[in-house]
């Protein structure tokens, strides 16, 4: 039985991989070795790709290419199947002009070497150049898309946005200015010092909570944008 693989480990490796002669092959071998976790790894590959700059997205595509072209002879052909299901969605995030020609070159190599069947690579290339989701992905989205998901994401985002606004106002109201001359003077007596200490700790706790909420807000916004993007296919 395969040992559990922590998502944090996968994310860290995918975020830190670089477009060098050693980095990509080494991570590719690690990925192939952990073939029992192919779904987890490819799902996180897509997640990191979506949230990366164009240059790193290209690096992740090169990584995908290395895995796909080596997985069969290393008895890990399952990766080809998993990436086949994922690449149509990834194409939408590989259209940046700075990397498009490189992405196109990789896809043409797949077609030339028969890595995928010609119909599949033609769909990927068409989607890359036409700003349109591949037909296979469009059909999948039409079947799976639920308007209730969009409503739910908008509602959750608005609630979180309102909470962030309230928390920010509260944080501003209790914020302690440690550079204030008056605040420093209060430290000279015990009562003033204890009061300052309490206010400082309360401010620190509120700031930590606010940052936690803000991280959720950023993640929620990404999820909403993803649902809206899928909605353009449905509507």
At a glance:
By secondary structure, this protein is mainly α.
Topology readout:
Layout: H1 7-16, H2 23-33, H3 38-50, H4 54-71, H5 78-90, H6 100-113, H7 118-130, H8 135-144, H9 147-174, H10 181-186, H11 190-234
Helix pairs in contact: 1-3, 2-4, 3-5, 4-5, 6-7, 9-11
Order of helices and strands: HHHHHHHHHHH
Instruction: State the end-to-end distance.
Output: 45 Å
Q: Kindly state the mean pLDDT as a whole number? A: 82
Measured as a percent range, the helix fraction is: over 70%
Biggest sheet features: none
User: What is the third-level CATH name, the topology of the largest domain?
Assistant: Serine Threonine Protein Phosphatase 5, Tetratricopeptide repeat
Named CATH architecture of the largest domain: Alpha Horseshoe
Q: Which spans of ≥5 residues are poorly predicted at pLDDT below 50?
A: none
Describe the global form: elongated
Q: What structural category arises from helix and sheet content?
A: mainly alpha
What is the domain total for the residues? 2
Reading off the top of the CATH hierarchy, the class of the largest domain is best stated as Mainly Alpha
Task: Please work out how many helical segments DSSP would assign.
Answer: 11
Q: Give the tally of β-strands.
A: 0
Rg over C-alpha atoms, rounded to the nearest angstrom: 24 Å
Strand content: under 5%
Question: Could you describe the 3D structure shown?
Answer:
The protein has 11 helices and no strands. With 235 residues, the chain is an all-alpha fold. The chain has 2 domains: 7-144, Serine Threonine Protein Phosphatase 5, Tetratricopeptide repeat (Alpha Horseshoe); 147-234. α6 (100-113) runs antiparallel to α7. The protein starts with 6 loop residues before the first helix and ends with a helix. 19% of the residues are buried.
